[in-house]
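Repro case for the chain-ordering regression, as requested:
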Amino acid sequence: MVHIKRLQEGGTDIIAVIGEIDASSSIELDLAIAKSVGEGFKKILVDCHALEYISSAGLGVFMSYIEEFRDKNIKMVLFGLKDKVTNTFEILGLADLLNIRENKTEALKLANELSV
Amino acid sequence: MNYRYKIGCSLSNLKGIRDFVRTTLNENHVPELQISAIVLALDEMCSNLMIHAHHCNPDHNLELCINHPGQETFIFEIIDDGSVFDINHFTEPEMGSLVQEKRKGGLGIRLVKSIMDKIEYSSEGGKSICRLTKNI
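-- result from build under test --
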C-alpha cells in the first residue's frame, strides 16, 4: 500500500512516497511521475523519507524514465532514503544510474546544478 | 523449525508474504539488513510466479515454507500447482539495455540471484517446488 503526495515549490515538483511500493502499487508511482512530466516540470524531487519498502517493480519505474528525462532535459533527484531501501538500490548498482542525495536541501542543490 | 503460509495468487497478497517472512526471520534473530534483502527476494519470486505462471488468479494458491535446519541456513520453498518458471533459465538483462528499452521488468531476477545462495527447482506429486537457500 502506497500513498503519494505532490507538492510544488518554486518550479520544482516534489513527489513524496509514503509506504511500500511493490508489484501491486508501482503503478501509483508511475502515474505520479507521468503527471509531473505531463505538467512540464523540469526538476522533480522524490521524497523517500517515508518509503518503507521498494521492490524491482518500483525500481523499474525509475529506470524506465531515465531516457525520457535525458531527452526532455528533466532532472530527477531522490532523497531521504532509509538504509534498507538504499540497500536495494545498491544490490542492483542503481545508485550510479540515479541521482540520490541525503536530504531535500542537497537534492534541490543538485537539481539546480544539473539544470544549468 | 518449519513455518508455512498459504495464499491466493493476487498481487495484493504480497504484503502478507513479506510480513510472514519478516516475522519469521525476526523470531530467529536474523540481522535487520539481511531480513530486508531476503524479504525482497521472496517478494520478487512470488510476484513473478503470480504474474507469469498464474496470471494473478486469486483462486490459484501458492504456499511458502521456511525451514531453518541449521544455525546459519534458511531454506525457503515456494510450492504451487505445476508451474514452470525456472529463473535459472533467464539471463538477467544488462542495466544499459533496460534503460534504453525503458523496460520496467527484468530487475527482479537480478535481485534474487544476488541475494540468494542457491536456487533449485523440483516437482513432487504434481506440485512444483522452487527452493531458495540463504546462508546467514
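Ordering looks correct now. Residues 2-115 of chain A form a domain with the Transcription Regulator spoIIAA fold (CATH 3.30.750.24).
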